[in-house]
């Protein structure tokens, strides 16, 4: 009986001794994430798994202050970066470019067999460096880096097929399309849509009203029927924002429209060049696909 008690004391003492041996800085246990083979049980804390401090990082500007090098302080983990500017990266060391001034939150996420952790820091970019910006869709939409920094578009009312509707799965307005100037005075042709490169700002100028699909026109106070659909009073929406993904989906903030309003503010750009933009967008109930063709302000269309 005494022998059994003695064994229990030994068995229960071993974990306690292990915890005590790892109660200070450093650790000789090779499975601990801060393993240091030169450490002794008295020179620090060993701990298992990862925490926020494990994901700490530093950053240093290059000769161009808009190009930043980020370095994870823990070299023995897998690293994933969110640079806060719409781009991401990987690796212990990575570089990010910031064409625009502003404050950006950078997040490092790390992974290894012990778990995962993340940490974030804010960085400030003082000046714009538009020369770093090379997204061709964004440059075409906004007019590029050599002009005023924005481009204004409007419906190409002069030409046939400037506006139409088709099946949701289609790529052309197979069910109906407008002839040139078929919808005058409804609030469609005088709208202006301006996309700024810096800050991704979107300005909607309505000149007081917009054209709205007949199924939702009555939900707008003061709206009235006009050439089958409805004209609705609608204020300008300056200082909104836009986002254009790599698969050419354009999203406008706060439900901002871009011409004939069907209850959506997400548009698929199917054609985009310096003289023409064609978009396909949905209907509020998902039953239709709408199409519109835009041209830049000041461009004179030559219709086929």
Structure description:
The protein is mainly β and about 300 residues long. The protein folds into three domains: about 1-45, no CATH class; about 50-130, Immunoglobulin-like (Sandwich); about 135-295. The chain contains two helices and 20 strands. The longest helix is centred in the first third of the chain and has 20 residues, at about 1-20. The model is unreliable at about 1-35 and about 40-45 (pLDDT under 50).
How many helices in DSSP terms? 2
How much of the sequence is in beta strands?
35-45%
Ranges where pLDDT stays below 50 over 5 or more residues in a row are 1-37, 39-47
Quick one: biggest sheet? 8 strands, antiparallel, barrel
Mean residue pLDDT:
86
**Topology order in helix (H) and strand (E) letters:** HEEEEEEEHEEEEEEEEEEEEE
How many beta strands in the DSSP annotation?
Answer: 20
Biggest sheet: strand arrangement: 8-11-12-16-17-18-19-20
Number of domains: 3
Distance between the termini: 105 Å
Query: What gross morphology would you assign?
Result: elongated
**What percentage of residues falls in helices of 4 or more residues?**
under 10%
Radius of gyration from the CA trace?
30 Å
């Amino acid at each position: 009986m005494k022998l059994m008690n003695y064994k229990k004391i030994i068995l229960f003492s071993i974990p306690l001794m292990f915890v005590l041996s790892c109660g200070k800085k450093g650790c000789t246990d090779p499975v601990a994430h801060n393993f240091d083979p030169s450490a002794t049980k008295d020179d620090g804390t060993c701990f298992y798994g990862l925490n926020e401090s494990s994901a700490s990082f530093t950053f240093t500007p290059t000769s161009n202050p808009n190009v930043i090098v980020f370095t994870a302080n823990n070299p023995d983990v897998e690293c994933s970066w969110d640079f806060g500017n719409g781009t991401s990266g990987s690796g212990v060391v990575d570089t990010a470019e910031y064409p625009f001034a502003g404050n950006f939150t950078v997040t490092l996420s790390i992974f290894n067999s012990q778990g995962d952790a993340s940490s974030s820091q804010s960085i400030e970019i003082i000046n714009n460096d538009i020369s770093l910006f090379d997204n061709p869709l964004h440059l075409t939409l906004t007019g590029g880096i050599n002009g005023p920094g924005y481009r204004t578009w409007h419906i190409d009312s002069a030409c046939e097929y400037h506006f139409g509707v088709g099946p949701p799965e289609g790529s052309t307005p197979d069910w109906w399309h407008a002839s040139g100037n078929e919808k005058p005075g409804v609030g469609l042709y005088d709208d202006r849509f301006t996309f700024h490169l810096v800050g991704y700002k979107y300005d909607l100028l309505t000149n007081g009203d917009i054209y709205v699909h007949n199924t939702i026109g009555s939900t707008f106070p003061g709206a009235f029927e006009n050439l089958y659909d409805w004209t609705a009073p609608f204020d300008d929406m300056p200082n909104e924002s836009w986002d254009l993904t790599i698969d050419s989906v354009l999203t406008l903030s706060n439900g901002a429209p871009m011409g004939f309003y069907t209850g959506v503010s997400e548009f698929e750009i199917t054609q985009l060049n310096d003289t023409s933009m064609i978009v396909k967008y949905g209907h509020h109930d998902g039953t239709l696909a709408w199409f519109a063709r835009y041209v830049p302000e000041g461009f004179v269309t030559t219709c086929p």
